[in-house]
Amino acid sequence: MKFLIFVCGEGLGHTGRCISLANELLAAGHSVCIGAYGYSGELIERSGHRTRQIPRELNLTGNNGSLDLKSSIVGTAKSISITDMRSVLNLVEITKPDFVISDGYYLGILASMWRKVRTCMIVNQSNMQDFFRGKGFMIRFVGSFVRRFYTWIYKRTDLIFVPDFPLPFAICASNLAFPYEVWGKIEFSGPLLRKRFGEVTAKEGVKHPHVLCSIGGFGYRLQIFRTITKAAKMDPSISYTLIGGPDLDYDMLGEIPENVNLCRFVADPFPYYRSSDVVICTGGHGTLTESLSFGLPVISFPDQLHNEQENNARRVEENGYGISLSYSVSPEELLHAVHSLLHDEKFKSKASKLKEHAQSLDGPGYIRKKLETYYTMKTSGLSFSALIPET
Q1: How far apart are CA 331 and CA 234, in angstroms?
Q2: Which domains are seen in the chain, by residue range?
Q3: Which of 190, 260, 288, 338 is a Cys-bridge partner for 361, taking CB atoms 3.0 to 4.6 Å apart?
Q4: Per residue in 232-243, pLDDT tens?
Q5: What is the b/e burial string over 127-138, where b = at least 16 CB atoms within 10 angstroms of the residue's CB?
């Protein structure tokens, strides 16, 4: 089979999942083309996959740790063009896939529907209307349109996979609000990990206790980086690996303590997961599920006014997998949270249970088998249930 994967580049969680799924499909003998852009496309290329350039679909902006929804809407609206839409349509026409897979990239879904190609969506958030709630008349109006658009898309997509632990363990559970008639096509696949715990060797030379800080490169998160370096300086017995990104101004970080290893880019974070005791991250779904799948409790800094991240972080804290903090936290408070996760066995125990759960799941393999089965069903006229392999 031929697969075309579209990747939303506004969060590297989308990127990591699609790399994982592409690896699985290729290993099974299928052909894969990946449409991506920006930093996401670079990471996919460094992972050994060739990409086709696609236009950026969203323009998320923020300031001092908060998502600026109005500016993001205006920036996104200004970036929409007929030329971009045609380029996505042309990519579907040129590659002639049997299945289009979209992880958060909706132009790809629209283009595949136009070309009458079967579609699959990877979704960890469907309550987009929450972004627009209580934000003024015009933004609420946009939110109403967005809700109708997503509902229309969900109803016409062939399959929808949630790349998370099955309920009630799903980290993104609070972010799911599908229409009633859509739930029949939704399945929880398990996390889409590029590498599983048993496949990874720990990073050499790491001193313990070790904290992995995976914050991402958005400039408006600079405050978190500064807070981490200040907290690290207060207790030199704890070592840190601080992973940034291309949009971060490293000159503004100030003095970096000796117990902090600053990495501007890490294509493969899994050896760092394997050698860490705690992870500090935002509220992004990808890093949270990766960390917990490796049995690591997390300190989550969700972007303010970013409903999805705030919901993820809240669920992590409520379930005892870690602690949620705001951007305004002091270095002293952050260090206290680090000590709590390092020494309180309840956090380690909860995270370890999710690690065991993740080891019993195979998200990429699950999706591949479902897609193969669905394709066979549609091309042979057999019933979908009759083709589901026994487990």
Answers
A1: 8
A2: 2-192+362-387 (3.40.50.2000), 197-358 (3.40.50.2000)
A3: 190
A4: 999 999 999 998
A5: bbbbbbeeeeee
